[in-house]
Specification:
Distance between the termini of chain B: 41 Å
Largest sheet of chain B: 6 strands, mixed
Strand content of chain B: over 45%
Number of helices of chain B: 0
Structural class of chain A: mainly beta
Order of helices and strands of chain B: EEEEEEEEEEEE
Helix content of chain B: under 10%
Oligomer: heterodimer
Radius of gyration of chain B: 14 Å
Structural class of chain B: mainly beta
Strand content of chain A: over 45%
Number of helices of chain A: 0
Number of strands of chain B: 12
Shape of chain A: globular
Largest interface: A-B, 27 and 25 residues
Radius of gyration of chain A: 14 Å
Chain lengths: 116, 115
């Protein structure tokens, strides 16, 4: 396993269309996070899963956004009725749950979304 | 609320010179601090973390960071910069009260190492 993978790497869509991104975390990592990064800013937290349970959602995650992790392995992030303001890099990260709760997060390469 | 600040948008340093990238934090409770680096069109790579213990933390690629509780700072340092260190650097704090261990990131500092 070489790390967290995300697909697609780039997505261009027209306003109003739906898009779905996929994240495959490092095997056996229980925790999975989605972040959004806009130009000139640091990543901002969107949502968090522990195994298949979605335990926290940011206020940034409007009702057009939905995320799933059905079997506690890969995760999908769907944006419905995309808006130009959704254009950003969407980053996925995973980490282990272990005795050391301070394990660092490992990030994927991101999916860059452009909404025209 | 937990937060970090990176006061410099960009830092320029000559190759071979020491570099410092600044980060200050504001937390309730114990701080759990991280540094990540981001190269163009790539995800974030972990450099180092401070959880507890020695105030000087050593990390990947020759980087280290000094935790200073009185100044609430966690500056990233390297004794001798390389051109290949040129990248975007992010400081982050773990959001302890939430229980999710999510990160709160600074706005980033672009490091440019000049040959």
């Amino acid at each position: 396993d070489t790390g967290v993978s995300q697909n697609p790497r780039h997505k261009i869509t027209k306003r109003g269309q739906n898009v779905t991104f996929r994240c495959d975390p490092i095997s056996e990592h229980n925790r999975l996070y989605w972040y959004r990064q806009t130009l000139g800013q640091g990543p901002e937290f969107l949502t968090y899963f522990q195994n298949e349970a979605q335990l926290e959602k940011s206020r940034l995650l409007s009702d057009r956004f939905s995320a799933e992790r059905p079997k506690g392995s890969f995760s999908t992030l769907e944006i419905q009725r995309t808006e130009q303001g959704d254009s950003a890099m969407y980053l996925c990260a995973s980490s282990e749950v272990g005795a050391d709760r301070n394990n660092e997060q490992f990030f994927g390469p991101g999916t860059r979304l452009t909404v025209l | 609320a937990q937060s970090v600040a990176q006061p410099e948008d960009q830092v320029n340093v000559a190759e071979g010179n020491p570099l410092t990238v600044k980060c200050t934090y504001s937390v309730s409770g114990n701080p759990y601090l991280f540094w990540y680096v981001q190269y163009p069109n790539r995800g974030l790579q972990f450099l180092l973390k401070y959880i507890t213990g020695d105030n000087l933390v050593k990390g990947s690629y020759g980087f280290e960071a000094e935790f200073n509780k009185s100044q609430t700072s966690f500056h990233l340092k390297k004794p001798s910069a390389l051109v290949s260190d040129s990248a975007l650097y992010f400081c982050a704090v773990r959001d302890s009260p939430s229980g999710t261990y999510k990160y709160i990131f600074g706005t980033g500092t672009r490091l440019k190492v000049l040959a």
